[in-house]
Amino acid sequence: MTDRPPTDDESIAGHNDLWRSLTRPDNEVPASVAVDLVLGSNADVVAFVSGMLVFSTGVELTLDVRARPGHRIDGEALADLLFHRSRGGKPYLFGVEYADGRRSARRHTFSPVPESDPDAVSLLQSGGSGGGGNSYSSSYFLSPLPPPGEVHFHFLWPDAAIPETRSTMSADAIIDAASRARVLWPWEDETWGEEDAPEIVLHLPAGSLFA
């Protein structure tokens, strides 16, 4: 006897559940972890994790890239290389490995459809990249939370002459912060259609600058 195929509603629900486990939960206030973890560097370029916001399901990482003023990476400006505006350079590679051997790696600008295995480690860009000149930042969501032990961060950027480097931190601070994440209300999938969108009405006090 074979299992019946899922209905359309079940398929949609399963897809939503998967993506909800792999993306930043909007119904939580995260706990922060102080971190200044250098991932890779040379005399002219550095990449580092400047912040971690820990939710009950994973960690949002802020990855920063800095270049020396006026420095061009393999003949390209930093923005051109990161965002493929010229010759389509090779962006950095960023990966994470847990103490139990699970790992995930992502290119800077590409996040494929994640695996359906709920125990698989996922590292997805959680927002756009921003910055200017010689300073740029990107955010990633790492899930699930790491087990006790060490968390290894791998970084490689051939065009910037940064070889593959492994940086390590203890998972203890992340696990402790996860216990302090605050769930505001039960998760609900957004189901608004265009006709259901609420009208936005601002009630401003007399004399308000915005009245």
Task: Name a few traits of the molecule.
211 residues, seven-stranded antiparallel beta sheet, 13% helix, single chain
The rounded distance between the terminal residues' Cα atoms is 67 Å
Profile the largest sheet: 7 strands, antiparallel
The radius of gyration computed from the alpha-carbon positions, rounded to a whole number of angstroms, is 21 Å
Mean pLDDT score: 78
Strand content: 35-45%
Label the structural class. Answer: mainly beta
Number of strands: 13
**Residue share in helices?**
10-25%
Number of contiguous helices: 3
Can you write the helix and strand succession as a string? HEEEEEHEEEEEEEHE
As residue ranges, the low-confidence spans are 8-15, 108-113
Give me a quick take on this structure.
With 211 residues, the protein is mainly beta. 13% of the residues lie in helices and 35% in strands.
Descriptive overview:
The chain is built from three helices and 13 strands. The termini are far apart. It has helices at residues 8-22, 78-83, 172-178; strands spanning 28-29, 31-33, 37-41, 45-54, 59-67, 93-97, 103-107, 122-125, 130-132, 135-143, 150-157, 162-170, 182-183. Strands 2, 3, 4, 5, 8, 9 and 10 form a seven-stranded antiparallel beta sheet that branches. It has a four-stranded antiparallel beta sheet with strand order 7-6-11-12. It is mainly beta and 211 residues long. The model is unreliable at 8-15 and 108-113 (pLDDT under 50).
